[in-house]
Specification:
Strands 1-2-5-4 form a four-stranded mixed beta sheet. It has a three-stranded antiparallel beta sheet with strand order 3-6-7, with no helix packed on it. It has three helices and seven strands, in the order ααβββββββα. It is α+β, with helices and mostly antiparallel strands. It has one domain. The chain is elongated.
């Protein structure tokens, strides 16, 4: 039997389910808005540094696959950390958005494939 996270991975980008928490969702005018915040887990590539979470970078909004006939808008807030020793700001290098679009990489690839037929 699937747990909640495994079920969500069938509907949403897996990257979001692993590294982000759903903080709220709302439906308005056939548009489903899902709000994500990056989990407060420092990036593994910076595990040797002493980091402190310092809030979020500005939210981005991207389009994703429609669900049950509703448009889906993903609101994503990425976290930033401060290196306590140097004061440098650290954040993960996410490739959430397909280059030149406002939609997830998976959705952009899907649309690209179907436009060939």
């Amino acid at each position: 039997m699937l747990n909640d996270a495994e079920l969500l991975k069938l509907f949403l980008p897996e990257l979001l389910i692993e590294y982000f928490e759903i903080v709220k969702f709302e439906e308005e005018n056939q548009i489903l808005h899902i709000y994500f915040e990056e989990k407060n887990t420092a990036p593994k590539e910076f595990s040797s540094l002493l980091l402190q979470s310092k809030g979020f970078v500005p939210e981005i909004m991207v389009d994703d696959f429609p669900l049950r006939g509703k448009t889906v808008k993903l609101h994503i807030k990425r976290r930033r950390w401060t290196d306590i020793k140097t004061g440098n700001i650290i954040q993960r290098d996410w490739n959430l958005i397909a280059k030149g679009t406002r939609m997830t990489q998976d959705f952009a690839e899907f649309l690209k494939k179907i436009s060939r037929y």
